[in-house]
Design a protein that fits this description.
The strands form three sheets. This protein has a seven-stranded mixed beta barrel. Strands 1-2-4-3 form a four-stranded antiparallel beta sheet, with helices on one face. The protein has two domains: 93 residues, Gyrase A, domain 2 (2-Layer Sandwich), CATH 3.30.1360; 130 residues, Cyclophilin (Beta Barrel), CATH 2.40.100.10. It is elongated and about 60 Å long. It is built from six helices and 13 strands. A hairpin with a 2-residue loop joins strand 9 and strand 10. The termini are far apart. The longest helix has 21 residues. It is of the alpha+beta class.
Length: 232
């Protein structure tokens, strides 16, 4: 298969690092390409690969620069990129894309925890119940992890809920806060600054991995308290 130049490219990232970049957008298929490529590189280690770091649309590869040239690394990686794109065309990538673990996470959307849910409902021109229905309807995909340990970027949020970050971030966002920003949603794993729109509080935060899937389940304040008590 002839790989179209605009589909991907190599970028020199550092003296000992090479980046493989796919199209510049948040997209399920592109992200599946990223994680399938990581899997192939790790399974067929070559050219002195030391570390592989995935993101939304790219793979950063650190290599042993003392024993391998960038040209050698490029030649080693190019066939795996070609295989990933072949799998996309054949439909095999779709099976890989849907293979992640499904996590069901209970969330209390009461205003006590959903610090922005009233404002989000107003921006939507609807009710808090409308916000909850829109946020709990999708099955979210874990695109990548970053910002802080265990912070997972999930998508895709319903287009009607795609609001920007706050212009001025909060200094302290409570751990477990479930929030949205643009087409993404996430759970703050620990107390930290943050500018996302907070809709509620998760009763627990499982160990999420890139490629996993998440469904949010709305629970009442009483159910949330019972869940918290059962985990203490």
């Amino acid at each position: 298969m002839l790989i179209a130049e605009q589909e991907w490219r190599f970028v020199t990232a550092a003296a000992d690092a090479l980046m493989i970049e796919f199209a510049a957008q948040i997209d399920l298929t592109i992200n599946a390409q990223v994680h399938r490529l990581v899997q192939l590189i790790q399974t067929h280690d070559g050219a002195g690969i030391i570390e592989v770091v995935p993101s939304y649309r790219s793979v950063l590869v650190y290599y042993d620069v003392l024993n391998h040239s960038e040209a050698q690394v490029r030649n080693s990686l190019a066939p795996w990129v070609s295989q990933v794109l072949d799998e996309r065309e054949s439909g095999a990538l779709q099976q890989f894309q849907n293979s992640g673990t499904l996590h069901q996470i209970q969330v209390c959307y009461d205003a006590e925890f959903g610090l922005d849910i009233v404002a989000v409902a107003d921006a939507l021109g609807g009710t808090i119940e409308d916000v909850i229905k829109l946020h709990t309807a999708p099955e979210y995909h874990v695109y990548t992890l970053g910002f802080a340990p265990r912070f997972a970027y999930l998508g895709d949020v319903d287009e009607r809920l795609r609001l920007p970050r706050h212009a001025t971030p909060r200094q302290k966002v409570p751990a477990g806060s479930v929030a949205i920003a643009g087409q993404q949603t996430a759970i703050y794993p620990s107390v930290s600054p943050g500018g996302w729109q907070i809709l509620g509080r998760a009763a627990h935060l499982p160990e999420l991995k890139a490629g996993d899937r998440v469904r949010f389940i709305a629970v009442s304040a009483n159910e949330f308290a019972q869940l918290q008590e059962s985990q203490s």
